[in-house]
Design goal:
Elements: E1 7-18, E2 23-33, E3 36-40, E4 50-54, E5 63-71, E6 74-79
Antiparallel strand pairs: 1-2, 1-4, 2-3, 3-6, 4-5, 5-6
Length: about 80
């Protein structure tokens, strides 16, 4: 099975929102593909199974995500359409 093409983003800062946008947390996108992304946080946190990610911080567009794996402060997420 061939993997989706990924773009390395060199720890680009962005925001994840939980609690229907009430709580904003800074995180870093390590790489992204059409179907998901790998993100990291500076501190270990209780990431819910689903949240919204602002891939472009200055835009209001949010991408709904679901956590598919966790390794310490790094998370693999898939995009929900």
């Amino acid at each position: 099975m061939q993997r989706e093409p990924r773009r390395e983003l060199r720890k680009r800062p962005t925001w994840m929102t939980i609690d229907n946008g009430i709580t904003k947390l800074e995180c870093f996108v390590l790489d992204v593909s059409p179907g998901g992304a790998k993100i990291a946080t500076d501190t270990a946190l209780d990431v819910r199974d689903s949240f919204e990610l602002a891939l472009v911080p200055e835009h209001t567009t949010r991408q709904s995500c679901e956590v598919v794996w966790r390794r310490g402060k790094t998370y693999g997420v898939k995009f929900l359409s």
